[in-house]
Amino acid sequence: MKPARLQRLRRFLGALAEEQLAHAGEHAMRPARDLSHPRDREFAAFLLAMLHTGRQDGPPCAALLLNRLGRQPALTLVKANRQMLDEICADLTLGFIGPPGLSLWLSALRNTLRRHRSLGDLFQFCLGPDGKRPHLVALDRFVVEVGRGLEETEIQAHRLGHLLPRPAKGSATARLHVFLRSVCRPDDGLDLGLWERPLPGQLLLPMDQAVLDRLVWLKLSEREKPCRGAVLEATSQLRMLNHHDPVLYHHALERLIALDLDVEGMRQRFRHA
């Protein structure tokens, strides 16, 4: 990439990231920020990331669920029995996943927190005793551990693969990367700065189709569909802009999506960066 284009991309995406920060009060992770205990904040961030649909046709499932779990959602979950979980999930749906599936998934999360105390402790366990296990391998182990105890027939019957995405299977796993971004990046008003590992420079870009479309417009990707390879390539491109914090620019891409600019509108703004 030519130096002049590199500098323009930094200015363009940096300005968009600052705009996103100005709208921090509307950010998807705000409910997690409002909690006091780090264990509850990381757990809320996980729910907000994994249960996000991007649709605004009613109260989001994650917000309703967090409201029912109260001000100490992780502690409430750890103490809950299966009947309580069924009551908490009553009438909640996430796309094609109904209350029984959500209750089953929450029971797996409850058992995970009982074994590891917090999601942060779990991820450190998945990184290995020396903390050097490859990022995607650790993330895959994290998902396996969350789903531990669930039968494959249960996962298929309730379509829980959506909530237990495996990086090892080659998908983009955008929601998992949103979660890691929110807990690993410094507290900047958008992300929460809860974990010391992985480092921000080790994170991967959360990528759905809307993000990929903007990357293609910016000539930072030539892929047609989000996948693990597309995530790795795009993150590598963004590391050229900021080696220590490439996923900072996910906030910029989120802002670009919120502005709903078409290709020409984006190009005009880019020319003036």
Short description:
The protein is built from 15 helices and no strands. With 273 residues, the protein is mostly helical. Helix 5 crosses helix 7 and helix 6 packs across helix 7.
Explain the layout of strands and helices.
Blueprint: H1 3-22, H2 30-33, H3 38-50, H4 61-69, H5 73-79, H6 82-89, H7 99-116, H8 119-127, H9 135-146, H10 152-157, H11 174-184, H12 209-217, H13 228-239, H14 248-259, H15 263-271
Helix pairs in contact: 1-14, 3-11, 5-7, 6-7, 8-9, 12-14
Account of the 3D structure:
This protein is mostly helical. The chain has one domain (3-271). Helix content is 58%, strand content 0%. It has helices at residues 3-22, 30-33, 38-50, 61-69, 73-79, 82-89, 99-116, 119-127, 135-146, 152-157, 174-184, 209-217, 228-239, 248-259, 263-271. α12 (209-217) packs across α14 (248-259). The protein is globular and about 60 Å long. The two termini are 17 Å apart. The mean pLDDT is 92.
